[in-house]
Fold:
Amino acid sequence: MTTGKNSCSAEVGGCAAGIYILGTAHGYSLQGVTLKFIPCNPFVVNGMEKVICFLILGLSRRSFRIHFNRRTIPGAVFMYLSSVLFMTANKMTTAANAVILQYTKPVFILLISCFFLHKMIYRRDILISFVMMCGMVLFFIDDISVGNMAGNVIAIFSGIAMALTNLYAHYSKTDIREYGMINCLISMLIGSLVMPFQMPRFTWEIAGAILFYGVFCSGLPILFFAKGAPRVEPLKISMLLMLEPVCGPVWVALIVREFPGKMALAGAGVILAALAFNILSPALHDRKKRYRYGKGEL
Structure:
């Protein structure tokens, strides 16, 4: 079977891989504002837009042949659970609670990496993760409430599923596009089962929004993720993807004219500053090391 690193990201360097993950975050950030134009059952919407996503991933692979085995099925299940659990949490608790609890995923990545994968954990990673999570809380602090406890628990499990998705994408060496297509098939199956009971009302505007969602909010982001994830550490993936909830309100403000408050802007500033430090500090450290050992000049 073709592996992800060999087929999709062998030519992608570290810097380019990070840019692809940022592209994923920006694509996902368009989901919220696009869904405002699709007044349909979320499972039905998920099933319909995954038809388009399936076509994009298949065309990028130049094959629609899928292998159902022990390497592709776990990735598809993790990817599907991260989506459906978050969708369910949004229905059961506040949107702010769902986002914040889902983005506890850096904590789970650190825990799984340390205790199950036996990877080295650095204090710098722990500190940056903590600062970014504080920024996330600040971003949504005006909307945080106790919420529904069951919904909050489901949101935490969606964070675990997202952490497993990031870890599996990086370490499994499996073509992410292939098990992404299996995820699409699962979504289409569930959507087709729900559709008879939640028949959507179609207009040209809704059809266009679903098409846009399938291309720019699902298909291309998963394709970018497939190119970048094998070359980017899972914790850094989760940090880069934190741009999604920051950029989402920007699109809403520009298109729907709903503006974030001052605390949200402050939280966004904290997240962006921590992310910039995380990206730039290794380069500054290498430059300082080269200067110290006389291998370069400032």
Observations:
- Residues 6 and 77 are 22 Å apart (CA to CA).
- The mean pLDDT is 83.
- The two ends are 47 Å apart (CA to CA).
